[in-house]
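Changelog entry

Holo records now carry the ligand SMILES as an explicit input line rather than a separate metadata file. Below, a converted record for 3VV, shown in the new format.
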Amino acid sequence: MTGATEQQSSTEASETSPHQGGFRADFEVTTERGGPSYGEMVEQVRTFMDKVRYASPTPELADEVIEDLKKLNAKLDTTLVDEWTSPSGTRIDLPSRGNITLPPYEVRNGGPEGVDAEVIFRRFHLGGNGVAHGGHVAVAFDDLGGMAAALRAGRPARTAYLTVNYRSLTPLETPLVLRTWVHEHDGRKNFVRGTLHDGDRLCAEMDALFIELRPGQA
Ligand SMILES: CCCCCCCC/C=C\CCCCCCCC(=O)SCCNC(=O)CCNC(=O)[C@H](O)C(C)(C)COP(=O)(O)OP(=O)(O)OC[C@H]1O[C@@H](n2cnc3c(N)ncnc32)[C@H](O)[C@@H]1OP(=O)(O)O
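Structure line, unchanged by the conversion:
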């Protein structure tokens, strides 16, 4: 593997970083971090990953793309901040709160009763034979399951276990409905269930346990 060792980062939290324990102390939400074009920047990177997934470049083109990417990486190197103050994960006006690592979703309804979201698995989420990779489906369930737990509990929760039952194939590039809700809770334990539908068709189901973090818990 190359690349990782070359990366610059300044991800150490500072004394003023708004975090406590393993997650943010509060549900930090913003619409301004990263500026008005941040969402479009993330979207362009997703589109690029879609193209990389299916591209078969000539050696010359691959070299050209590498040079362009090096320049882009150098640009972003000048702006790195710690995870607690980066826009990613806090921009509630953007798909998946601006977090590029998540399949893009939009929350249609979210509250203590549960979360109802529209998710689209992109071309780069391909598993095989034109449908989504099961790991990416689990990522979507994890984030939106954690959100259901956090919105019910009023504080962050961490996944203790997460089981996905894959009931039918999950298509790419199709708006799907993902729902999560706390089925039962007991102390810090939130038993969360979830479903993923393509229209009326059930693609997958989730059964998970999210534990609310104690203040300061790593
Ligand atoms: C309109 C929209 C608005 C939106 C607004 C924005 C809101 C945004 C909000 C949110 C979105 C973000 C959401 C993100 C979600 C992602 C979450 C992740 O992926 S987390 C990373 C993966 N998970 C780990 O790395 C955990 C590793 N494990 C641990 O850290 C610990 O084991 C932990 C915290 C899970 C539990 O440890 P302990 O020390 O706190 O608690 P102990 O005492 O061990 O367990 C508590 C109880 O739970 C049971 N328990 C624990 N683990 C269990 C297990 N695996 N199975 C069954 N029971 C378990 C225990 O038996 C105990 O039960 P008894 O109280 O005695 O009844």
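Spot-checked after migration. The radius of gyration is 19 Å. The chain has three helices and ten strands.
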